[in-house]
Specification:
Blueprint lengths: L3 E8 L8 E8 L3 E7 L8 H5 L3 E6 L2 E18 L2 E15 L10 E9 L2 H5 L4 E5 L5 E5 L3 E7 L4 E14 L3 E19 H19 L5 E10 L2 E9 L5 H6 L11 H4 L3 H27 L6 H15 L15 H12 L4 H10 L8 H10 L1 H11 L12 H18 L11 H22 L3 H10 L10
């Protein structure tokens, strides 16, 4: 993602005849800013001047729409004629090569994104090398291609393809830059905000596969009008944690799974991921929130987010196996009725309120029931054959001790009674690692992997095996 400073003239959509000179600056980690000479106060109502949702611009590089803007500050700058008042606006999104006159108009037929690490994840050859009969070697450049496509639902589909940028210097070199793009296509033109949830779940899917947070490095929106397709470049600020992550190296052997591992079942996995998101959205957000901000989370936050994601997963509408550990609603109602028959009438309403959730398992019961569920036991037993550290999750004293300890830590941290352990110590980090492995196993299971494949994925990820005390 590039940085730039575009000089031009800027105006509000409702007043195109009054334009102000200024510079739009953008850097990936600082986002966008617009500095103009003067302000928009004399051109429109003051409340719109301070928070003009859209500012339009014309520069030497083309048309620009600045989206979701607000005034940061006004200040004086000195030039050869004295002091000049300038206004500085913060910009959340920038649309290059197009003017959107209103928020309603910000619509696309599809959005195509190049995420970090996706070249390594797909790992598809760009060139073929062929030896001819005369002994010479020929390099065959493969054209742009679509690798797979999957229907998410009736409104959206998702595809993976490869595109190329070419740079040619006839006297020195030819550069062909391959990039993998994830394209989200809508059944009809839709607002940019409608794509955000799809983009979030797509990014989460890639993060689980790659084992590191991915970030959008290139984003293009496509608009079709009168049979002509125009491309709009979309720019926004990257997370502050992206800098260190993007600087790191990653090979396909360090990932949970690559595109080639799932290419034969690509649509099944995509459908599963988005279908499960309806019930598991909280699980996704808590787990991927931890991964997205590795340097921002305190150990307590990381622990609480992970155990909360497990508790969310243990809802019986997500994990039907947990139903057998709870009484039926009819049975529960009969028990409550019997209790009420022995309680003075003055206390019945108070007791009903206290017992309204009494049929729900406690956190201890939920985690224990999860570990005892048949599907989870099959996965852990398969893992334990190769790595005995997973015995911590099997039946016996070690499992009981683990569940009791993490519930005790959660209760003390959540209820303010004070946890007396060292949250920066190795033992606390081991508990966090165990919770992380549990969530990862469950995400892989819900995605559609069988126990053997989950075993292979988890075992080859050595960072995930630091789950036992030294």
């Amino acid at each position: 993602m590039e940085s730039f400073d575009f000089k031009g003239f800027w105006w509000l959509p409702n007043n195109p005849s009054e334009k102000l000179a200024g510079i739009c600056s953008f850097t990936p980690f600082q986002g966008g800013e617009l500095e103009i000479i003067g302000d928009f106060n004399g051109l429109t109502e003051s409340n719109f001047a301070d928070q003009p949702f859209i500012i339009l611009g014309n520069t030497l590089k083309g048309d620009i729409t600045l989206y979701d803007c607000f005034l940061k500050e006004k200040r004086k700058k000195e030039n050869i004629h004295g002091l000049v008042e300038v206004s500085l606006y913060y910009i959340n999104l920038i649309f290059l090569d197009n003017h959107f006159s209103s928020d309603f108009d910000v619509k696309f037929n599809e959005i195509s994104i190049h995420y970090s690490f996706t070249n390594e994840w797909v790992n598809t050859k760009t060139f073929d090398f062929i030896h001819s009969e005369d002994g010479k070697q020929h390099i065959i450049h493969k054209p742009s291609e679509q690798l797979e496509q999957a229907s998410i639902d009736t409104n959206y589909s998702l595809s993976i393809g490869i595109g190329y940028d070419k740079s040619v210097n006839l006297f020195e070199k030819i550069i062909i830059d391959r990039k993998v793009f994830i394209t989200i296509t809508a059944s009809e033109e839709r607002h940019y905000k409608d794509y955000i949830k799809i983009m979030t779940y797509t990014r989460n899917f890639l993060t689980l596969a790659i084992t590191k947070p991915v970030f959008p490095l290139i984003m293009n929106g496509f608009i079709s009008k009168d049979g002509v397709i125009s491309v709009v470049r979309i720019l926004g600020k990257l997370s502050s944690s992206a800098n260190d992550i993007l600087a790191s190296k990653l090979s396909c052997h360090e990932m949970f799974f690559t595109f080639h591992d799932i290419s034969d079942k690509f649509e099944l996995f995509i459908k599963n991921w988005f279908e499960k998101a309806k019930d598991m959205g909280t699980v996704y957000e808590l787990y991927f929130g931890v991964l997205d901000n590795p340097n921002s989370y305190y150990p307590q936050q990381e622990f609480l987010s992970l155990i909360q994601s497990l508790e969310s997963y243990c809802q019986k509408d997500i994990n039907s196996e947990l139903k057998k550990f709870e009484r039926s609603e009819d049975e529960h109602s009969k028990i409550l009725e019997e209790i009420m028959n022995h309680v003075p009438e003055d206390h019945q309403n108070w007791l009903k309120r206290k017992l309204i959730n009494s049929n729900n398992l406690s956190l201890n019961g939920k985690i224990m029931s999860l570990l005892k569920s048949q599907s989870f036991q099959e996965i852990i037993k398969h893992l334990n054959k190769q790595e005995n550290a997973f015995n911590i999750f099997l039946d016996g004293k070690s499992k009981n001790d683990f569940v009791n300890e993490i519930v005790n830590i959660r209760n003390k941290l959540s209820h303010g009674s004070g946890y007396d352990g060292d949250v920066y110590g190795k033992n606390f980090r081991v508990q966090i690692q165990r919770l992380k492995v549990l969530v990862e196993i469950l995400l892989l299971k819900e995605l559609g992997f069988d126990k053997e494949t989950i075993g292979t994925i988890i075992l080859r990820s050595e960072a995930r095996l630091n789950i036992k005390h030294s």
